[in-house]
Amino acid sequence: MSKEKVLILGVGNILLTDEGFGVRAVEYLEAQYRWPENVTLMDGGTQGLMLMSILMDCDFLVVLDVVLGREAPGSIYLLEGEKLRQSLSFRDSMHQTDLVDTLVTCELAGHRPRALVFGMQPYDYKTMQVGLTSEAEARLPEFCAKVVAELVHHDICAEKI
Q1: pLDDT tens, residue by residue, 62-88
Q2: What is the pLDDT of residues 74-128, one digit of tens each?
Q3: Could you tell me the domains of the chain?
Q4: What are the TM regions of this chain, as residue ranges (predicted)?
């Protein structure tokens, strides 16, 4: 019996401070953990619809991103269903589409993966500067530990290196 294909996708614009948090989180997870063979980690940047073929090739999509919610900066969110629209995923793509629209397009094309978004309320996502704010940088280990802990509930177990 084959395991489902899992894609952990870090998204965001690394040129806009904390907007790049998802990309930095996937880099951290790749460097700090050993993942099962059926799990792929990827920097999705701001590619939006250009990621469609990759999304359609997975069964379970885990997006790491910044989320504009109502909580204080640094708050961590787990989003599913219609709450996925709170994620900034893919809004800065050349097609100006969001994650939910991209997933609906995948469904129309034949395969929509299950999806979760792990996000953090950004401290600053408008300043053009490469690198996270010091506050967001400090939240990376805790954020990533929460991602790893939640994925265990989905039978995805990573090993700390």
Answers
A1: 999 988 888 999 999 998 876 766 565
A2: 999 998 876 766 565 544 433 345 666 777 788 888 888 998 989 999 999 999 9
A3: 6-160 (3.40.50.1450)
A4: none
Q: Burial code of 87-123, b = ≥16 C-beta within 10 A, e = fewer?
A: bbbbbbbeeebbbbbbbebbeeeeebbebbbbbbbbb
Beta pairing partners, 116: 62
For the chain, what is the radius of gyration of the CA atoms? 15
Question: How far is residue 105's CA from residue 77's CA, in Å, rounded to a whole number?
Answer: 25
User: Between the CA atoms of 14, 17, 18 and 23, what dihedral angle is there, to the nearest 10 degrees?
Assistant: 20
Cα–Cα distance for residue pair 147/157, rounded to 1 Å: 11
